[in-house]
Amino acid sequence: MGKTYIQQLFKAYNITVDAGRQQLFEEFMSDERNILAAEQIITNQRLLMDTWQFKNRLADIQQQQVVIPNATVGKAYTARFDFAQLKWEDFTWSGINGLEDIGLAYDTATAEIKGTPVKSGDFKIRLQYRLQGQAEETPLNEKLVSLVINPNPRSLWKDLPSDREGAFWKEDNVTAFAPLGDKHLVAASKRGRSHANTGAYRDDDFAFTHLADSGWSILAVADGAGSAIASREGSRLACNYIIDYFEKEFSPALQADFDALLAEYATTGSDATQKKLTRFVYDILGAAAFTTHKKLDEFAGGQGMSLKDFHSTLIFVLLKKYVHGYVIMSFGVGDCPIGLVHTGASDITLMNRLDVGEFGGGTRFITMPEIFKSDTFATRFGFKLVPGFSYLMLMTDGIYDPKFEVEANLDRLSAWQSLLADLGGQNDDRIQVTLDAPSEDTARQLAAWMDFWSPGNHDDRTLMIIC
Amino acid sequence: MRRLPVFFLLDTSGSMYGEPIQALNNALSGMVNTLRLDPQALDSLWLSIITFDKEVKELMPLTELVHFQLPEISCPQSGPTHTGRALEFLHGRVTSEVRKSTPTQKGDWRPLLFIFTDGKPSDLQLYREMIPQIKALNFAAVVGCAAGKAADNGLLKELADTVVHLDTADSATLKQFFKWVSDTIEQGNKSMGTTSQVVLPPPPQEVILIV
């Protein structure tokens, strides 16, 4: 090897050996000292090249983008360095120190970061490693890898009380319990976490009354638009205007007309009577809705504000027990469902079609004049005569979104059965709402149940149950 | 669960080279960190970053904030600003990625668009062609940010509902601006009817609102 090197070296420097000196050159190349010198050069060259290659490799690893998934505080986490995919097959050892402080640990054998993070932040973790050919005693190489640990969203929600001095203030959380003829009303309305977090007001509202003389119950639930500045008042007024309207306008004469019509319907069930009944529902509930709209408009004007500032959805129901069964009449604008769960939870009637836009939050409000002009106005009414029922439920989207998720589920009995089971205690918090023996306690239980956790669903929640 | 999709279109043309791009990186990183502390955002926010210079790059496809990792944004030393092509690309992404409500699918919140530029479109004709198409996507807000003297407020105004002007693209100004962006994002997930625009929080002092 040494000989070849010397020959190549001389050639590179254009040193020629005359024919007469060949013997001398042979001796030169066979001299052990010269061979040794040549071999030393070769070894040194190799060392230089290897060292360069090694440095190069380290620099490559330094530059390499290594991405590990983000973690979340309180959530079990595993991230593995895939050595084959990272082209790290020349790693002979790897380790990470200091992960314990954030609740994680590194397993050298599996190259996994594991654990349940306890601290959030943007961390740079030091991955230490040794490459093939590196002696045991050499210092370890290091690469910084970013690890984002998200805070646990549950820990971030604040519960700031709303400003009692502010305009249109209302209680953050309310409950109600009342007998309604031979049924009971249990209701709760809670300010959502998204509002509690900023000390904002509850936009939802509800109201009800039972007209003891006639036996009619009037129930209303409304959800103020999150983007409208006075929607909390809009929802409150909408509910109260409906109650006012029927207390004043649903005269004994009008009620007598309805009673006669219903008796006719219950006995003959003819198309003609049904048409008259439909017309009646349309006229009286439609007038109530329109009056509410107008009164909201007047109120807004009186405040020097725009009607839009009071945007609110509205659902309301008129309920009465007759010898023929229960009459349930409804009106709805917006995305709050009214569900009638039949006796024995054997069937479900969704009393209204929801206004859901193509995007979230894109709904319609009682404060929009166009709803009364639209040809879909007639589809906003519902009428049902049933021998009996288990539950009648009015809810805002704060309940509907997490419990039904999509519109199609509102028509499915199984979804309502799940909700009933959930209310019956099949939930993470083991809270039971005793709807089979309704009392003041039931309303408190309902309010406690309403604190259920559902990621992404932090709107105000209102649920009114007639049982 | 409802998502709030937020798209960022960022100008990475030659004029951004150097300090401005560094300032942009820092400001974006600050914004993401701020958003991570908002429980609402952690639950619903999805972010996408698209850069445009001579080329349009989807630096980060629409990604949930929880999994989001901010990529390093770099830019060439010179070259044109293909804003029109960026809008064309964005249109495709929004059309395919943003979910609309159906009886069996939960629709997203209306998406937000932030467009940041320090110049004016080199492909003006395409830019103008794309404007009505972008508007038809029904964003809850389109916010334009014009940074520096060369930025054309007027052209941006044709596209965006709100245009803000930053005199300089330095670190402090951009940080302020993106703090405001995160405040705006926090406004994005509320019910507001089908077409009304999101109400923006008041901008910081360094920002001049172009009316």
From TrEMBL, chain B:
Protein name: VWA domain-containing protein
SMART domains per UniProt: VWA
Native species: Chitinophaga agrisoli
Gene3D superfamilies: von Willebrand factor, type A domain
Domain VWFA: start-end pairs: 5-181
